[in-house]
Design brief:
The complex is a heterotrimer of chains A (283), B (253) and C (94). Chain A contains nine helices and twelve strands. Chain A has 283 residues and is an alpha/beta fold. The chains are: A alpha/beta (283), B mainly alpha (253), C mainly alpha (94).
């Protein structure tokens, strides 16, 4: 099974193309959204092909609606399979979320209740994706803002059950863990203590915005428009110290900054990964 | 989430009121609004990015209201955001508040063609040497297949001029009389171009796109425009490297 | 004989003339006054074309108070400075 190299990655934005190729210290892999490369040709594919010569590639889907009630969109799955065949990325990942219903696409990662019924549906969809692609996929834990009365299963147990049933891996988004825990008044460290780390193939780190709900409670939004927050770096540090270095990616999707600012974030990831590597050598 | 719960969720997502769906834990108005806003802003921003000339012409408030009406009438079916505006031009053509700007739908057609051209396949283009080797007696039945990035937009309302005014190529000025303007959209390498076509060219290129022979396309163009200049048209096809395939098979209807 | 038939008869000579134009012009488009508009609104030339369209995002929007209701159809753009045979476009608010 192909794997991403252990090191820092970045979500690729076309405005950084030249800077990335100019000399990427410490950059081990890049990640792109599958849906942005489903056109036939032109600059997107020319850039991706050039980047693939230099870096390992992670393809990250945002539109499969794996947590949705509808059957998977066959046309979309076929487009995805074609893209993966073309670039042979080291990893493919998607979200524990839904984005389509009744043939309509909502352009957001929408939450689902965690019940035996939704678990069975997600298991079926993940298996269908892995079968169609002929490879293991990673499933990412979501940022959530609301909770459903009907949920009966903890998110970590829900993810663990999907892994057990399908053999998929997990993409651990540490910012999402922090955002959800803050929004629901739970402890991110106990979430991480129970997380099935054996299945983790990649880590995500991104920035969030802070707001409040109508009762004055904190409402964090996974906006990916600013640097990673300090408490999220602290969690990342702990995770790496405990579980060893892993492929770890900086996501910055909105208000995309100049490359040097992203490079700062990448360097911080590399530093934390390197420290863990040298610590284990000493021990 | 069973069927009716999902329906409630989707209704709340599209509702312009502030109500969250049923079945959530605790006060959730603003929490649910994160999703409602993400969906609306994401899709409207997608249209703004794809139709910058239309946005410039009508201004932000008008554009967003129009985009919202369009998305209600024609919700996106695909997670490929590049396709979200495919039907926006035809929506504008029939949208009452936009009818005061008769050029608007045509300007949107130019912009939609640019987006398609940007993502079109990288099919190799034929150079002059391929044309040079065509025998004179094969010309009448010659079919010239055009590159998938090539599109023709025809406007009765000076859309090319307005498009240039909206995109900074020309200073906004008075248009005293509507002119028919045809344009060619293509993508020579990676960046789309929009080019004004002389009268008759659009008919000629359109006929070629639909599989007509050179003779049939020439007749059609000459009938539409007495001054149609075939050598100029061919120079655009050959010099602009619009062609990807030549054939002489007899398959005229 | 109609002009269109004449045009077909002239195919060979027009074709030869076109080949001549193109080889003379050599690079680029041989047609008269090629009004090419490069893409506009680009922050980094040649890197991020506006016709690329929007990229998807897996982030949520932080504009929580974005108003999705109170919009009116009041034109306020370049259309107001382009005078046309229809006037500048006056409309009562929808």
């Amino acid at each position: 099974m192909d794997r991403l190299p252990i090191g820092a990655g970045v979500g690729f934005k076309p405005e950084h193309f030249a800077a990335i190729l100019d000399g990427p210290p410490n950059l081990a892999f890049i990640e792109v959204h599958a849906e942005n490369y489903m056109g036939d040709g032109g600059r997107p594919h020319a850039q991706l092909a050039a980047l693939c010569e230099r870096f390992a590639l992670s393809i990250h889907g945002v539109g499969l609606s794996i947590g949705g009630e509808d059957p998977l969109d066959r046309d979309h799955l076929t487009r995805l399979a074609k893209l993966i065949e073309r670039y042979k990325p080291q990893r493919f990942s998607e979200h524990l979320a839904w984005s389509s219903h009744g043939g309509e696409y909502f352009n957001d990662l929408l939450p689902l209740p965690y019940t035996p019924q939704t678990l069975a549906r997600v298991v079926k969809h993940v298996s269908q994706v892995q079968e169609k692609l002929g490879r293991q996929m990673l499933l990412e834990n979501p940022s959530t803002y609301i909770r459903f009365e009907e949920s009966t299963i903890d998110e970590v147990d829900f993810l663990g059950a999907i892994v057990a049933a399908t053999g998929c891996g997990l993409l651990l988004d540490i910012n999402n863990v922090f955002v959800s825990a803050q929004n629901h008044g739970t402890d991110p460290r106990s979430y991480l203590a129970n997380f099935p780390f054996d299945a983790v193939g990649e880590i995500h780190l991104g920035g969030h915005d802070a707001d409040t709900d109508e009762t004055g409670d904190v409402l964090l939004i996974d906006a990916h428009g600013c640097p990673v927050a300090d408490p999220v770096w602290a969690l990342f540090d702990e995770v790496i110290a405990q579980h060893g270095p892993m492929p770890s990616l900086i996501e910055w999707d909105n208000d995309v900054p100049a490359w040097p600012i992203l490079l700062n974030e990448i360097s911080r990831v590399t530093y934390i990964l390197d420290q863990s590597t040298s610590a284990s050598r000493v021990a | 989430m069973d069927g009716h719960r999902t329906e409630s969720f989707v209704r709340a997502l599209k509702d312009t009121g502030d109500r969250p769906p049923v079945g959530l834990v605790g006060p959730s108005d603003r929490r649910f609004a994160v999703h409602r806003n993400t969906v609306a802003i994401g899709l409207i921003t997608a249209l703004e990015v794809q139709f910058p000339a239309v946005l410039d012409l009508v201004g932000s408030e008008f554009f967003r209201a129009t985009a919202r009406a369009f998305l209600e009438a024609s919700p996106p079916a695909s997670p490929r955001l590049t396709t979200v505006g495919e039907r926006f031009p035809e929506f504008l053509a029939g949208f009452e508040p936009a009818l005061q700007f008769p050029y608007l739908a045509d300007v949107a057609r130019i912009e939609a063609a640019r987006v398609r051209a940007y993502h079109a396949a990288d099919t190799p283009r034929l150079g002059i040497e391929t044309f040079s080797s065509v025998a004179a007696d094969a010309l009448e039945d010659l079919r010239i297949e055009l590159h998938p990035a090539v599109a023709i937009v025809r406007s009765a309302h000076s859309a090319f001029t307005v498009f240039r005014m909206a995109t900074g190529g020309l200073a906004p000025a008075t248009i005293s009389q509507w002119h028919a303007e045809d344009c060619l959209i293509d993508r020579p390498e990676f960046d789309p171009i929009v080019q004004l076509l002389a009268p008759g060219m659009a008919v000629f290129l359109h006929a070629l796109q639909h599989g007509a022979t050179l003779a049939t396309a020439t007749v059609a163009a000459s009938e539409s425009t007495a001054s149609f200049d075939l050598s100029e048209a061919l120079a655009i096809v050959i010099g602009g490297r619009l062609a990807i395939h030549l054939s002489t098979a007899q398959r005229d209807p | 004989m109609s002009s269109s038939n004449l045009a077909v008869l002239a195919l060979a000579s027009s074709f030869a003339a076109a080949l001549g134009f193109v080889s003379e012009a050599n690079a680029g488009r041989a047609a008269a006054q090629p009004t090419m508009d490069k893409c506009y609104g680009i922050s980094l030339a040649g890197q991020n074309d506006c016709a690329a369209g929007p990229g998807t995002t897996c982030a949520g929007s932080s504009k929580l108070d974005y108003d999705t209701r109170a919009w009116k159809y009041v034109p306020a753009g370049t259309c107001e400075t382009i005078a046309t045979p229809n006037g500048k476009g006056l409309l009562k608010e929808a």
